[in-house]
Every structure is written in structure tokens, then in C-alpha cells.
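Lecture notes, part 5. Sequence design as translation. It can be helpful to think of inverse folding as translation between two languages: the language of shapes and the language of residues. The source text, in C-alpha cells, appears below.
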């Protein structure tokens, strides 16, 4: 990472800073945003974190998560606070459309933009860009950003908790997208006072009973396995949403169960949310689901984890997904 003098100046003096992350924020979005907030506050910045939509409750143990401004809920307050901001930091997304109306609102507000992200092909939306698609997580990049600024000593247990949250969730508890740096970073966080098992306990052992029942329903009644394409998928209808009282975040991680089938190379979760059909794709090895999402569904993400939205019906979207498989057969069977 390189730090131009202008950027160092900007960060080391108190600014009125806004931090943004993507719709349906995950552990990395929340962890990186709050870590950056706790870090910049030590430089005297006034910081607010903004998300387009709500975050899953299992992350509410992170300090200051209760102060996050959600556009869908606090629209007027978001506008008022944003009007005074002069520094805008984009974390864990690569296109302004990923923050929906927040993106439109800040379009003409004056102030420098900083992007720190690990998704492929970022749009040119920032004055200072730290984009590394090989990184495990945005939290890994935020750690390297802070240390690159020479501020290692500002990584206290509060910052460490947030950074660890993004690293552990984006790597599926160190099962994918790892690299040797990730383990060194986590070792350093532990040396600086992080209780890593306590964080894992908060995140992964906080399921609601209804979510386990939903998972059972998905695996027993909504899973299709296509061995000839080494593909499995789960679908959920609007009726399932009503019956299981599914709320935002309740379906997080369900797609990953499909990858645990030995021969599966491609896993999909296709579900009918109130207004759109959402696709989540996961893969093993070289199969590039980001390319599938981008080419066929105007989505994006990473090589092994990508997503998209569709305005077609659930049935049509499932059919389109199935119809694509023959053209990827060589890659699926490799
Ligand atoms: P998930 O399937 O968990 O929602 O998302 C997996 C990855 O794909 C995440 O990195 C997320 O940012 C990205 N992603 C999910 N949905 C979309 C989408 O509609 N458009 C784009 N460009 N990326 C998405
Ligand atoms: Mn991420």
C-alpha cells in the first residue's frame, strides 16, 4: 500500500468523516466500518457509519454498532449528518450502486473519497483507492491500512474485535481465501488483546431456533442436486418467507451447506425477497462465479462467492440458472 502525503495529512487531522458499506451488510462490511471508525476517532475525527439497510443482529456486540445510521430507517437523519461531512470512506464494495440511495445522496457533496475493498473490478469512484482482490477481506486491508499509516499501536482490543469479525466471516472461519498474512494479522490481534474464541462464540453460537428450523426446511424440502453438473441449489419462495417469518440476514450462510457435499463444485441459493429475486453463488476451486453473476445476471463479487438480483420471477430465474449449466459443463467437471 502506498500513502501519498495528501492522504496522510487528511487522516491525521480531525475530519468530519462518513464511512459507508454495502446493502445487506455482512461481518466484513460491519467489522471494517467499525474498525475504521474506532481507529479514526483516535485521530480526533468525528465519524458516522452509514449502511443502506439493516445488519444481522449477531454483530450487535461490536462497539458502536448501535450508532450506525441505516438509510432505510433513519433517512432524514442520514441526510442531515451527511450534509456536514467532508471525508467519505467506502469499505467492502466496488461500485456506487452497491450503496443505493446513499450513493445518489452523496454524489455532489464536496470532499475526498477513499476506497478500501477486495472485490474484483472496482469502478473509479475514489480519489484514493486501495483495491486488492487477492485479500481475504476488507478487514485484512484495513489492518494493513492502519499499520501502513504507522499506527499499529492504535489497534486496541476494540479495533481488533471488529477486524477479526470481518476476517473470520469472510474466510468462512479460515476455510477459504486465506493467505499467510491473514494468520500473522490474527496472531498480532491476539497479542494486542483480542479474545478470538469469544468473538467466534458471539457470531456463530447466536442462532435463533427459527433459523435452524428454516435451515432444516431448506435442506429437506428445497434442495436440488444435479450430479451431472456437480451443482446443488436451494430455493425459497415468497410463501416460505411468510411461513418461516424470514427477516433480513436469516438466510445468511445457508448456501455454504451445499459446498459441504463432496462432489459439488457449484452451489446456489435463489430466493424470492419481497421485491426481487436474489441469487447467491458459491464455488470450489477455479470455477469463477463472479463471471457467471456478471455476465448473466448483472451481478458481481469474488471468484468463489458472488451474487446478483433478478427482476424475473423465481421460476424463470431458477430455469435460467439451470439452462446455463451446460455451457459451464467443462469447468464444472474439471
Ligand atoms: P452474497 O451472496 O453473500 O450476497 O454475496 C456474495 C458476494 O457477492 C459479496 O461479496 C457481495 O458483495 C457480492 N454481491 C452480492 N450481490 C451482488 C449484486 O447484486 N451485485 C454485485 N455487483 N455484487 C453482489
Ligand atoms: Mn468482504
Amino acid at each position: 500500500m502506498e500513502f501519498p502525503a495528501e492522504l496522510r495529512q487528511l487522516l491525521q487531522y480531525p475530519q468530519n468523516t462518513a464511512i459507508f458499506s454495502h446493502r445487506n451488510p455482512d461481518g466484513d462490511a460491519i467489522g471494517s466500518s467499525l474498525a475504521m471508525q474506532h481507529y479514526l476517532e483516535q485521530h480526533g475525527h468525528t465519524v458516522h457509519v452509514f449502511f443502506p439497510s439493516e445488519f444481522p443482529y449477531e454483530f450487535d456486540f461490536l462497539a458502536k454498532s448501535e450508532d450506525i445510521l441505516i438509510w432505510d430507517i433513519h433517512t432524514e437523519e442520514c441526510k442531515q449528518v451527511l450534509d456536514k461531512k467532508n471525508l467519505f470512506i467506502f469499505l467492502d464494495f466496488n461500485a456506487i450502486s452497491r450503496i443505493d440511495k446513499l450513493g445518489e445522496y452523496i454524489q455532489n457533496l464536496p470532499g475526498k473519497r477513499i476506497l478500501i475493498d477486495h472485490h474484483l473490478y472496482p469502478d473509479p469512484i475514489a480519489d484514493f483507492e486501495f483495491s486488492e482482490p487477492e485479500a481475504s477481506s476488507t478487514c485484512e486491508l484495513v489492518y494493513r491500512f492502519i499499520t501502513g499509516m504507522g499506527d499499529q499501536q492504535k489497534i486496541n482490543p476494540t479495533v481488533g474485535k471488529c477486524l477479526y469479525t470481518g476476517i473470520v466471516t469472510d474466510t468462512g472461519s479460515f476455510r477459504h481465501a486465506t493467505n499467510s498474512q491473514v494468520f500473522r494479522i490474527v496472531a498480532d490481534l491476539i497479542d494486542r488483546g483480542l479474545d478470538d474464541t469469544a468473538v467466534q462464540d458471539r457470531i456463530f453460537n447466536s442462532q435463533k431456533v427459527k433459523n435452524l428450523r428454516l435451515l432444516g426446511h431448506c435442506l429437506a424440502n428445497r434442495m436440488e442436486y444435479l450430479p451431472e453438473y456437480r451443482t446443488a441449489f436451494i430455493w425459497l419462495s415468497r410463501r416460505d418467507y411468510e411461513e418461516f417469518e424470514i427477516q433480513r440476514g436469516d438466510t445468511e450462510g445457508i448456501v455454504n451447506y451445499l459446498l459441504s457435499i463432496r462432489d459439488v463444485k457449484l452451489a446456489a441459493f435463489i430466493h424470492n425477497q419481497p421485491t426481487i429475486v436474489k441469487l447467491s453463488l458459491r464455488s470450489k476451486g477455479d470455477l469463477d462465479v463472479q463471471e457467471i453473476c456478471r455476465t448473466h445476471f448483472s451481478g458481481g463479487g469474488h471468484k468463489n462467492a458472488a451474487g446478483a438480483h433478478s427482476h424475473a420471477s423465481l421460476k424463470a430465474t431458477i430455469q435460467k440458472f439451470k439452462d446455463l449449466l451446460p455451457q459451464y459443463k467443462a469447468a464444472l467437471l474439471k
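The translated text above is only one of many valid answers, since several sequences can fold into similar shapes. Residues 5-204 form a domain with the inorganic pyrophosphatase (n-terminal core) fold (CATH 3.90.1640.10).
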